[in-house]
## 1
Amino acid sequence: MPTRRREPSGGAPGTRFLPAILRARRPEARCGLTLLELLLAFALLLFSFVVLITAFQGAGRETPFTNEHFTAMFLAQKVMEDITQRVAENPHFFTELIRDATGERVPVVDGRSKYFRLLENTRNFNLLLPEEDEPIVRGDLYEQLKPFQVQVATKWQPDPLTGEMRRNLVLVEVTLSWVSKEGFAREYRLAQFIHGTCLDEFAEEPRVVISPAARQRLDEQAVVALANLLASDVPELAGARPGQFTVADLVRHSPGASPEALLEVGRMIALIDGTLARDDRITAGMIPLEQERDALRAYLEKSAKNAADREACLRFIDLQRQIGGIYEEKGVAHVSALLVLIRSLPALAAIFRDPSVLGSRVSLYTPYLLAILNGSEELANLAVLSFSSAEKCYISMVSPPVISVLPRRKEPAYLRKAIDIQKVGILMQQKDGEAKDLLKDFTRNLDLFWKKYRGQHPNFTAFLETEQRLAASLSTLRSAYAGIWKAFRAIDRISDEATRIRRSVPARYLGR
């Protein structure tokens, strides 16, 4: 009788053919989905599909708004680009931008806005004459831009240290507004900082504003200058460095001295001797540049090579630009130092009338201090000479035939430098007769430049037109740039002031 095979203990019928891994599952584990789970999954799928359809429908309704928004972004960017380009190519436009302040909101089309005018002219971007600058008055582009209005506003920016408004930095905000097809008012704004110089500043009295940090450096240099002066009598002051000694140390070595009087004459020494020493260093550094420039000039003058040798011409222009810039930098440094010194002349005059306020030791150096004061006259002459040298360099860069090798797009930038430095030359001249002769040459150049570049560089010709208006007469030019003219007039009188101070010194202080 066959023996029946027994199932393993704890096994279930029919499980002997299943893999061991399945046989090991817990009794409550099961496979498949219930009807309820299938219904829930279908409901979720249906809900997601409805939400997706609604989202696509909403996106379709907002498409016109999105297109308008991107159009506004494009227009705002074009306006900002136009403003920055105008300021770069026509510095007077910064003044116009400031005076507009919060501009009027005007339509983009129909020539109502003065911005992105080149965008409106689609026929000929290379040659733009005033009569060709036609506004957008019809067509598809007109219909696209008609809903938009533009407004440009400017805001002065305060200095983070002093809290005063910075006259050379403004925040420009361009606002594009429109009404969407759904009837909603929309706006897009774009803001950017723009740096420039407002013409109104030139008409103001020359101001010398020294920051607290600059004043501290000047006072430290004043102490060093006086310490070096006394070093021959007081060896411990030899080799003084900024911050090593204080004015109290000087008073100790010159009993009876007024600390403020010592600082005043120390500042005079630092300003005059320091500026002259810096001038010598800069002049020495210019020698290689001037030698190369002079060699190139001699080369170009032979057999009309200046018209043929483009590479040599461009190098000559670059050298003149560098040298002219250095001369201009020197002139600005001289004028700045002299303006600071001029503010101190009344105090210096009182000190030299009674040098005893410098103390028993420093007062013995009164003749030396007067010699330093005489250096102010040399500094004034160097200021005039520096600007005159810069003018010659800049004028040579735009004189025929050298200018013929300049890239066309760079010509206005070089010409603006020549124009600006010519103005300085006129304003430096205190004699009316000579100033009027210089003004005639200046206005003749402006007219020549305007005729040459009219229609080719609209921003540059706008600059020239403003210059022509300002240079209509010597009085209008001096009025527009009264700050510069009065600064040079004050510098021109510094020699007389120094002479009066020397004559006021008591004889007993002049013997050493």
## 2
Amino acid sequence: MIVCGSLAACAQQTSPPGGQEDRRPPVVISTFPEALGTLEKLDGSIRFDFDERISERASGATLEQAISISPRTGAMRVKRGSRSLTVQVEGGFQPGIVYRVTLKPVVLDLFNNRLGDPFELVFSTGGDPVPTTIAGQVWDRLSGMGVDEAVVFATGDDGLVHQAVANREGIFAFRYVPAGRFSVSAFADQNRNEEIDSMEVQGAVPLEVAAGDTLLVDVSVLAPDTAAALIAEASAVDSMTLVLVFDDFLDPERPIEVSDIGLVRDGGAAPGVAQVFHEAAYREYVEAVTDSFARLDSIDAAQIAAAAAAVAAQAALSATQGDSLADGDSLLASDSVVVDSVSTTGVGEPTDTVTIRLPEEAPAPRVGGVGGRPPPGSPQAGGRQATASGRRAPVTLEPLPGVRPGRTSDGRRVLPGRRVVVVLTGGIEFDTPYEVRASSITNIFGLGGGGGVATLLWESPPPDTTVVDTLLAIDTTGVVDTLSVPDSGGGMRR
């Protein structure tokens, strides 16, 4: 005789012996009430029926945690039958409301096969359900990625709290919600208590939806922050360009005013601040300037090619007329070429004059003087882009480890950074200590009052170092508008 050591051991479930192994998950075959039906008895009882026997266990949760009712109600109990789950809500359901009950994919059969997808039951306690939908994505504000299984609440003006759970990509949806104003909040429910705790990643947005509408809304989430953003480091990439690193991410949609940043120096004057960029905005600025210079170079090349063609045409014309080419050198040395056109028959006098002006050579940036150590991205450091005409794009910042600030690949979102680029009105001096002061800085969580003070010291480079410096280069803040460049005929190219 075999005696069980305990009643619990005797009751422990195992997979049925023999036969072919079952790998198919359980399937809901009926519900009470039926989908989109009206529940007349409001005692708070609903039921899910399955096509096979189910386990008393759930995958990573309890059976109570397997059920979510929206709008949220009082406490509930879940009773398992051999092929069913019955839910009893304390206090019952309220009249005149559309309820949405979600069965999460944690239910197991006796072979540990899990319910494949969430199952949603929508029913009414009075009135016809209206297909109003709120949908969107919960996404991490720092990475731009969707938040897996975030809990989402939509709280209406009537005080009812509708609830949904996002999928692995952070996608969520509320169906058959009433028209009105809502606050949609999302959070990572780390302790699975279905409550927004103070230290959980979270975020919220307000919205208003009309009956029958489908409204798309994204909710960005962040870890709560109670400390303002402070300057951690200040450095110079050249005499007129500073980089400030903060100890927290900054909101790229909140501009930093020129008056929020200042530079002071003991015993002398310090340059003022001309421009302040968030890192993402500075990156776009550099790309725009580089693109403008590339277009200007293209125009220069086209004009030079046209001038060369005109010289060749003049030479050919002179040869056919027996003219001397002795003055060809002076023609090439001038800044314009005059070409007489010839009729297609070769008979008669020239009828028109075409003037092509050779572009002036852009002056190369001067080297030395107040310059210093080659900035990151300079020709000496291998990163600053220079064109054949001598135009120089602004310094390109090397990325910090982690998330790259700027627009996401789909262009929908701008990810924040911890750096600010400051362009000065004049140059700083070598080996001279400055203080960089910041105020009214707002971090990514919306907490203002940040700033602080950091020491800035630009050290002298080795004596044999050749430096290209912003102060001595062509002004890259006053880029020529390539949409309004004069053409060779004196008109405006658009």
